[in-house]
From TrEMBL:
Protein name: histidine kinase
Catalytic activity: ATP + protein L-histidine = ADP + protein N-phospho-L-histidine
Source organism (scientific name): Scleromatobacter humisilvae
CDD domains membership: HAMP, HATPase, HisKA
Transferase is among the record's keywords: yes
The keyword Coiled coil is assigned to this record: no
SUPFAM superfamilies (UniProt xref): ATPase domain of HSP90 chaperone/DNA topoisomerase II/histidine kinase, Homodimeric domain of signal transducing histidine kinase
Primary localization class, coarse: membrane
All copies of domain Histidine kinase, residue ranges: 304-502
Amino acid sequence: MRPDHRSARRPWRDSDWCRWDAGASEPRRGSDKGASRRELRWRRRAAWELMHYRRHHQGRSLGGNLLAMFIVASLLSILLAALVLETAFNWHRSMALSHALSEQVDWIESHLAFDAAGTPVALREPPDTAWVYTAATRDWKYRVVDGRGVAVLSSDTGAPPFAPTPADAARERFDVVVDGLPLHVVSKALTHAGHRYVVQAAISDRAAALFSGAIVGPILQNALLIAAVSLLLFAFGIHGSLRHFLLPLRRASEAASRIAPRNLETRLSEAAMPRELRPLIRAFNEALDRLQQGYRVQQEFLASAAHELKTPLALIRGQVELSESADRELLLGDIDRMARQVAQLLHLAEVSEARNFQMAETDLGGVAGEAVAFLQRLAQRGNVHLDLRLADALPARRADRGAVFVLLKNLIENALQHSPSGAVVTVDVRANGLSVRDEGDGIPPEHLPELFKRFWRGAARRDTGAGLGLAICHEIALAHGWSLVARNGTTGAEFLVSFDAS
């Protein structure tokens, strides 16, 4: 029992998705409403299957994926570095604030003026810093407190000393609120002339933030700018590196795309490949070895089978010719068609192998004349005129004379088969190509892509061939590096062979 190949189809194309009777206009069972619901479910499921297939089978760029991965990793690294820097700056700002206040306390201590009793009476401020405690009285403050807890000297006359909440005389650093303004305070004990004092320096929270922003802000901005430029340069560098590293893979892909049945002996080189890609290239070359061997066996079998069939067909024809059977002519016609198909199979096997061609300087005009003379009787039977046109001073071309004869013979024979009585088939040979033009009905546009496929036969063909003649022509043109195309002219079809295929 042969396997059911429907299971290999895409699910949204399978015939089981739409269960309708072939000869009925109504669904097989159920009401119209139920059938509509089932059809809607089938369509939704088919759409989901199609979306799932496309999502998992769309091509992905290795270079693009790697570049995106590196960029995402770089962005995450920059964000992490920014968080670390922000934390470090916040910590450093707090430490710098405490250090600055401690230095301010030391500065105040060193600039205190005492009276004869050893009591602080003034702060000897240099002219360049005298403005600090007078211009910014709310943001910069100091106190000198005696052992009784009384402020004997202050930037604010009569102001009480700074005291933490809850009260703790041993605390050296604390925050207070004065007149609704948060202050950071640092205290330091001082002994002078046997008297103990406490020097306090304070700065408002807004002043600390202002000075910190003036210092830290530009640093952060410069760091972000450097990070953005570095990321951009990094992305360009990675992109260029990926293009350089993937260049051998692209070259291997281009070389693989040029491998065809005619050059199956070509192999991809592992020399310039990265070490990680060499197993893939090696496996691909081994697959080509197996493919080449299978293709060679197939071609040899085809040629052997066609060759072995020639002798039995000749013997059968001889027996039929000697017989007195009433349907002898019918049998001879069948045998001739079989012999023709066998000959075409043999030609196809031969032209599919480049080693079977014997290239030499060839007079294409002379070959065209031989092909026209060979088919003259066939043209006369169909009342079709063959018109051979040769350009002046045709140069000789390097080609296989026998293969070119088969190419022209098949093209002319195809034109004769599709030409009505009284028509003209024109064979035109020029320096850069040749063409065969008939005056038939032309080629349906949907059939043009199928013409040169093996065993393809149009629905309106008049002959009983196997559909190999044009395929043989295509193989011969490829072997010579020529191009063969078909098109519809003003009257009938035209087959053009261009010698400059590149």
